[in-house]
């Protein structure tokens, strides 16, 4: 058995020791330079105010898009005219002018230049595309809005804007510094080259299996390391004793400590690719979202009178949605959001809104009862994480099932955000707690957190370097034999 473990450890390490080192070095980069993203608040802040006075028939505008079953409906401003953007099944996105029900044609490069100039108040250097994929729009959240036009701005930081040819929106922004460092950071760390990541299923399998093999490599090394340490102790050696010499001794001694750090980090990183394999997923289903609304989104348009929209005057994004069969208009600006019930409504204040949410949840989960509900506090260890937090206006509803499932609903628009059962709460600690050291009392102290992360990663990297040296020596010996 020892011989088998030694063979497994040796060959896994020879093949993947460089991957181990790259994970640690790229992880250090990611502490300071995260993957580029454009926040919703910035996107909305830089959008144009919607000219509500020009809106004609929302129903005709939806029919013009050809979207049969809409999952999301929004009003935006484009070419000084209001447009209705409809998102449907199978990543379908289409837009039509809300003043004429004329379909919005795919953007041209001249359209993109006008949008980019208005968004950034900067002149344009060049436009490329349309692009289905590149490194910074490779995530599947961009799938419904492809293809994009990439606009290079004539500024000092090398800004690139990505504009959806379907929705007319700027949905991604990067600069030269972010792109450069992320090729050394997230692209390496997540095994994120475009050619791999654009095929989600391929990427999922590659990262999951590579991480699992790495876990086996570290586990076998730890077992062997402890065995050899015991052998050294039997020979009368003290402390972090090793029966080896040279680089192998350093690898053994450092591994007795760093090996556990490496194992925990690779294991928690492997869990980031779980996607329902071992733990539950937080994403609500389309049916649960529909049950919360109670009516099809096309029906909400029938309930909206054009004068109702004037309550949303000054908004830069207007979402048309529903909760418990009640049509709602959500008027958004960069930092504010206004919820407007349409027609006869029992939603008149915060208390009645919460009651409507509770009733809707009971319809979406008919086999359970809502036993309690409360606003998620800002210091909640499950909702406010370093790698993503729920909004301040999030209501947590607790079901009476065996898992004490939590349902999170956004009170600014009545939307279902996430589901968290016991499995998901355990996942929070095994992934976020270990991989990002997202631990109460530590994560909020940025300097101390960074110091500990750097120390642990440096120890892990040092250990990996000893493995690389040993792998190089082994390969060299085999070649020269």
Overview of the structural elements:
By secondary structure, the protein is of the alpha+beta class. The protein folds into three domains: 2-33 and 196-278 and 445-480; 40-182, no CATH class; 286-420, no CATH class. It contains 14 helices and 16 strands. Strands 3-2-1-8-9-10 form a six-stranded antiparallel β-sheet. Helix 9 (246-271) runs antiparallel to helix 13 (422-435), helix 9 packs across helix 14 and helix 10 crosses helix 12 (350-364). The protein is globular, with a radius of gyration of 27 Å. The model has no long low-confidence stretch (mean pLDDT 93).
CA gyration radius, whole angstroms: 27 Å
H/I helix tally: 14
Strand order within the widest beta sheet: 3-2-1-8-9-10
Question: Helix coverage percent of residues?
Answer: 40-55%
Net shape: globular
Mean pLDDT: 93
The secondary structure category is: alpha+beta
- The percentage of residues in β strands lies in 15-25%
Q: Could you give the count of β-strands? A: 16
Given as residue ranges, the uncertain stretches (5+ residues, pLDDT < 50) are none
How many separate domains?
3
- The secondary-structure element order is HHHEEEHEEEEHHHHHHHEEEHEEEEEEHH
Main sheet makeup:
6 strands, antiparallel
How far apart the termini lie comes to 27 Å
């Amino acid at each position: 058995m020892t011989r088998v473990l030694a063979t497994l450890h040796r060959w896994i390490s020879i093949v993947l020791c460089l991957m181990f080192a790259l994970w640690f070095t790229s992880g250090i980069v990611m502490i300071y330079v995260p993957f580029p993203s454009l926040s919703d608040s910035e996107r909305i802040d830089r959008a144009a105010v919607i000219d509500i006075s020009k809106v004609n028939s929302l129903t005709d505008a939806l029919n013009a898009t050809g979207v049969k079953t809409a999952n999301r409906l929004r009003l935006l401003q484009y070419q000084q005219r209001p447009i209705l953007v409809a998102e449907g099944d199978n990543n379908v996105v289409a837009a039509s002018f809300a003043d004429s029900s004329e379909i919005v044609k795919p953007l041209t490069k001249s359209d993109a230049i006008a949008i980019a100039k208005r968004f950034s108040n900067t002149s344009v250097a060049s436009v490329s595309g349309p692009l289905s994929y590149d490194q910074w729009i490779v995530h599947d959240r961009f799938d419904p809005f492809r293809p994009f036009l990439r606009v290079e701005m004539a500024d000092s930081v090398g800004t690139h804007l990505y504009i959806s040819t379907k929705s007319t929106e700027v949905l991604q922004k990067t600069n030269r510094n972010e792109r450069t460092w992320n090729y050394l950071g997230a692209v390496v760390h997540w095994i994120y080259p475009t050619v791999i990541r654009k095929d989600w299923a391929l990427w999922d399998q590659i990262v999951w299996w590579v991480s699992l093999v790495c876990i086996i490599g570290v586990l076998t090394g730890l077992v062997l390391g402890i065995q050899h340490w015991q052998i050294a102790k039997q020979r009368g050696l003290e402390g972090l004793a090793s029966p080896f010499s040279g680089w192998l001794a350093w690898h053994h001694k450092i591994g007795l400590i760093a090996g556990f750090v490496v194992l925990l980090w690779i294991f928690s990183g492997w869990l980031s690719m779980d996607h329902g394999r071992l733990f539950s997923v937080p994403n609500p289903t389309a049916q649960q979202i529909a049950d919360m609304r109670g009516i099809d989104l096309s029906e909400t348009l029938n309930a909206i009178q054009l004068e109702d929209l004037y309550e949303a005057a000054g908004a830069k994004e207007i979402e048309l949605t529903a909760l418990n069969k009640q049509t709602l208009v959500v008027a958004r600006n960069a930092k504010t959001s206004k919820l407007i019930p349409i027609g006869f409504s029992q939603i008149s204040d915060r208390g009645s809104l919460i009651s409507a949410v509770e009733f809707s949840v009971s319809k979406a989960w008919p086999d359970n009862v809502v036993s309690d509900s409360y606003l998620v506090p800002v210091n909640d260890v499950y909702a406010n994480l370093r790698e993503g937090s729920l909004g301040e206006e999030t209501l947590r509803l607790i079901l009476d099932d065996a898992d004490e499932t939590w349902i999170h609903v956004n009170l600014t628009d009545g939307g279902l955000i996430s589901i968290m059962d016991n499995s998901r709460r355990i996942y929070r600690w095994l992934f976020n707690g270990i991989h990002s050291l997202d631990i109460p009392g530590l994560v909020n102290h940025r300097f101390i957190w960074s110091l500990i992360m750097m120390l642990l990663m440096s120890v892990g990297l040092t250990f990996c370097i000893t493995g690389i040296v040993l792998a190089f020596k082994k390969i060299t010996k085999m070649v020269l034999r």
